[in-house]
Amino acid sequence: MESITKVQVDNNVFPPSVVKPPGSNTTLFLAGAGIRGVDIEGKFVKCTAIGVYMEESAVPFLAAKWKGKSSKELTDSVEFFRDIVTGPFEKFFRVTMITPLTGKQYSEKVAENCVANWKALGTYGDAESEAIEKFLSAFQSENFPPGASILFTQSPAGSLTISFSKDDSVPGTGNAVIENKQLSEAVLESIIGKHGVSPAAKNSLAKRVSELLKSNAEAPVFEKPASDQPAI
């Protein structure tokens, strides 16, 4: 049975599990983590470190279609990541700042991408417009210095719980809950989807899930805090 290890991204450590994050009553395991950066005048600038966690029931769900696939096959499959985004299990993702960012900057960029995509698909309606307004409002007065995090908990029922942390702790309650399945999925899609902002997180997720499915595990085993096992 595959052991779930921590992952270090730049100076940020993502633990192997998160217990009952805001909006959840379960323990979620670290599926993958990686850097997000942008190219500025030929120089790669690190912006955020992103970790993606999933509920244990994700393992048998994904195994039905993806067991036996290599990490490269999973990395190259848009459908694999779509199955994670839309799968009937809880997801939790943490976006930790490496460079400072305001809540307004972050939320407006995410909202802009969501709306553009929905309009292209013809799925942008009143409910989505209202959800976007709530999303923007949640971030309006927030600022994120290096080390601060934006936390999202995605429920399979369609709710998105948003919380904020100034360090590596996970708060007990969320700052906002938005009941819109399309928005909930779109935020995670923006990270690991076809045009996801963190190829490194996608590669990490594909490698770790591929190994996990090979083990034929029904549930992951979490690395003990004192373990020196190398992270994938």
Give structural attributes.
13 strands, 7 helices, two-stranded parallel sheet, alpha+beta, globular, disordered C terminus, 232 residues, seven-stranded antiparallel β-sheet
Write up what this structure looks like:
The protein has 232 residues and is of the alpha+beta class. It is built from seven helices and 13 strands. It has helices spanning 58-66, 71-75, 78-86, 103-121, 126-139, 181-192, 199-214; strands spanning 3-4, 7-9, 12-14, 17-19, 27-40, 43-55, 91-97, 101-102, 143-144, 149-154, 159-165, 176-179, 221-222.
What is the gist of this entry?
With 232 residues, the chain is an alpha+beta fold.
Could you outline the blueprint of secondary structure elements for this entry?
Layout: E1 3-4, E2 7-9, E3 12-14, E4 17-19, E5 27-40, E6 43-55, H1 58-66, H2 71-75, H3 78-86, E7 91-97, E8 101-102, H4 103-121, H5 126-139, E9 143-144, E10 149-154, E11 159-165, E12 176-179, H6 181-192, H7 199-214, E13 221-222
Parallel strand pairs: 1-13
Antiparallel strand pairs: 2-3, 4-5, 5-6, 6-7, 7-10, 8-9, 10-11, 11-12
